[in-house]
Structure formats: structure tokens, C-alpha cells
Amino acid sequence: MSGSASAYDFRHGKSASRKTDASQESRASVRREQTLSSHDPAHISLFVPSLGGGGAERVMVTLANALAERHFLVDFVVWTESGPLRSLLSEKVDVVVLGTYNPVRLVFGLARFLKTYKPQVVISALFVGNIVAALAKAASRSRAHLILTEHVAIGTYLRNEPRRLRRLCVPPLMRLTYVLAQNIVAVSRGAAQSLVSVLGKNTSKRITVIYNPIDLARIDAMAAADDKIDSSSVPTIINVGRLVDQKDQQTLIRAFAKLRSRRPCRLVILGEGEKRSTLAALAERLGVGSDVLMPGFISNPYSWIRKSAVFVLSSKFEGLPTVLIEAMQCGAPVISADCPSGPAEILEHGQWGKLFVPGDVDALACAIDEALDGKLVADVRQRAADFSIDTAVSQYVALFP
């Protein structure tokens, strides 16, 4: 894969790669001709906030690359182009930059894109992006087939949202806009149930569950890479996720501190976010600061996971935690909070790994202790194979008109 895909900047109607307006019009014309000459939807646009390191963004990158490999013409439309996942996009995928975080400007920027390039299918992710995509479709009077995807247990997310205005405004906005979509996709059965709790029971028949596409071959190749990881003699516990309240690395650090008091081990947390200083301070306060490594966002976490003794997901809530499946593909024993939603579905209620009650420090410390003693012996790669990219992409393609 390459990060050399061309990028188009819609802030000024010019291409970020310095192509002329005329070349953009030519490109749009070619796309329209390709679309009209085919019975299948040749032009697909995926809409996400950024190419940041979030799980939903990573899933959309995987989906975009897979659709491009199937000979669809694929755009990746983002609010801002910067982000560590940029290098993972195939050179066959064009990046379109709207260049704003302002919701109103986003709606009109995306509407202008829809009018200009006339994609046949638009796939959006995350509730803010979904609301913007639906409004842009209405504003542009686009005939695009709109697929909204929900990557989190949205009901739980909103209950945990500290901003009162967002808690009050998001549900009615979702109910107003999601009806404009031809399809709504939830990434797990739990995420679907949570979505129904927000949208209403009459929407349940409009929701399709499609598990996230996982590029298992790419994970194997990256896991085998040598990233000069510190080959410490002590067993490593690893967590991968944004450093935010949702991921609850506080519980993980507290459990690790209990465990570290009775056996040698270290904790590695890969990710970046607003809780970095809080987590570092907690580790220092518990006396394990030197044993907790937080190297930030790592573009290849799989080689780290492969060399670790156990992978831990400590989240308060999820949708379908792709990173848990990726860890299983790396062959790591896994422990997960039994949070809404996804982990219990992935692990089939404990068949493939250990589940613990979210926030239970003692239960997590005990589970990690058992894992380090070699008591988690399931062949987790066997379960990971059920989430192949071909299966998920075929299910998305089946929704296309």
C-alpha cells in the first residue's frame, strides 16, 4: 500500500496535489462516463472525519482499499487530511479534503462534492459524520445510495457523554437524518440494539449488522515485521487504543499495579489522546511509572502484540472492537471488558478469551495473572478467521443498488 494517493482540496475548489480546475473537471467527466457505462455502482465515496488513529477510521481505510481492489472507483472524503492512517490508504484511492470542522461548512462542502462528482454510493461513519452526510445528500438533492455506519454502542456512548447539549441534541438529530439513508449498518448485534434504543423500535428492520472487515493477510505481514521492539525478558501486557475515558486504561493501570506487586511484568499502552498526562500520573502515583510504557500511536501495533504475553481491552463501551480481533489474529491470548458492545460476540461469551466486568480492577488483575501463567490456551487465530475482509466487503456490496 502507498500513501501516494492523489488528494483534492475542496476548500478552494483546487486539488491539493496542484492539479488544475480543468483537470478536476476532466476527472469528474471520466468518472461520470465510467459510471454510466456500467450496470454496477462504479463510484463509491467514503466519508469520515479524518485519517486519525481511531478504530472506525482504520476500518473505513480497510473497506476503501478492499473496494478499490474490486475495481470500484473510490474516494476517501475527509474533513482534514492529516493523520497517521494516511500511509495505509491504497494509491488506488483518491483523498478529497473538505478542510473544515465547522458542521455547517461540512454539510455544504460535502453537498458540493456530491454535485460535482455524483458518486453512486456514499458510506459514512460515526454519528456526527452520518448526520452531516445525510444533510448534505438532502441539500445537494443527490441520488447517491447512502449507507450510514455506526461503530459504537451509541446509546451507551450518549449516556456517558459529559456534554449535556450533545446528550440532548444528538438523538433527535439522528432520528431526523438517519431516515434519509437507504441503509444503516451496525458493526455488531449489540451496537444494533443500542442504535434501536436511540432511533426507535420501528427502525430495527432497516438496520443491517456487518462485522468490521479485517485484512488478516496484512496483519500477518505486519506482525512478522521487526520494529526493533525492546525484547524485555519480563512478560508484556499490551493495550492498544486512544487515551480517552472510553478506553478506561485507568482500570488497566490499577490492575497492573496490583499484579506488579507480586510478579515481574510490564505494561505497554499504544495510542495517543487527552488522558496521557492523567494516565502517566496515575502510574507514577501507584509506583509503577517505570514499568508502564506509552510510546504513543504506532502505525504497526501488530508486531508489538505478537511479542506480548497477553492483550487487554479495558473499554467502558465499544461497537465492535476491531483491535480485539486483530490481536487474536496476531495469536495473542486476549482479555476483554464485557462491555457494550462487541467483546462478548467476538469471544463467544468467553470461549476464546477471558471476559471481566468493566471497571473491576481485582477481576482484571486475576485474569492477567492467569494469562501470564499460561491458562488462556484457545487457538484465537481460528476465531479471527471468521472476520475475513472478503466476507464483510461482500456484505457491503450486496447493499449497493
How would you describe this protein?
- By secondary structure, this protein is α/β, with parallel strands linked by helices.
- It folds into two domains: 7-210, Rossmann fold, CATH 3.40.50; 217-386, Rossmann fold (3-Layer(aba) Sandwich), CATH 3.40.50.
- It contains 16 helices and 15 strands.
- It has a nine-stranded mixed sheet, with helices on both faces. A six-stranded parallel sheet has the order 12-11-10-13-14-15, with helices on both faces.
- α4 (127-140) packs across α6 and α9 (249-260) packs across α14 (361-372).
- The chain is globular, with a radius of gyration of 21 Å.
- Mean pLDDT is 89; it is low at 12-29 and 34-39.
Strand arrangement, major sheet = 2-1-5-4-3-6-7-8-9
CATH superfamily annotation of the largest domain: Glycogen Phosphorylase B
Mean pLDDT: 89
Biggest sheet details:
9 strands, mixed
**CATH third-tier fold name of the largest domain:** Rossmann fold
What is the number of beta strands? 15
Q: What is the global morphology?
A: globular
The percent range for strand residues is 15-25%
